[in-house]
Specification:
The protein is an alpha/beta fold and 103 residues long. It is built from three helices and five strands. β1 and β2 form a beta hairpin.
Amino acid sequence: MTGVKSRGSEIETKLVTRVEVEDQVRETMDNAHEDKSGLLVPAKSIILTSSTKHGKRLKQAFDMLYPEYRGWLASLVTLQDPSSGELMHVYKECSFPRILILV
């Protein structure tokens, strides 16, 4: 049965991918500094992803690992979205989001 994936290997692949994405998010936050309120604030950053799936996983990881930001830490922007220009303007002009995930 060559070429057939077992159910176990599919789950392992998904798990490794989730862990790798969470590691990317933690690495980004490792370089953050504390603001006056004690909140970790990373430098403004743009992350380019190779797929929508990867971008969504990054956004979910930022939201899950850092709930104190209430979803404002990272923003996912797909260039096919009609509101992408407005979202990029908000990123440029406002303090949050700090991370722009571009697909």
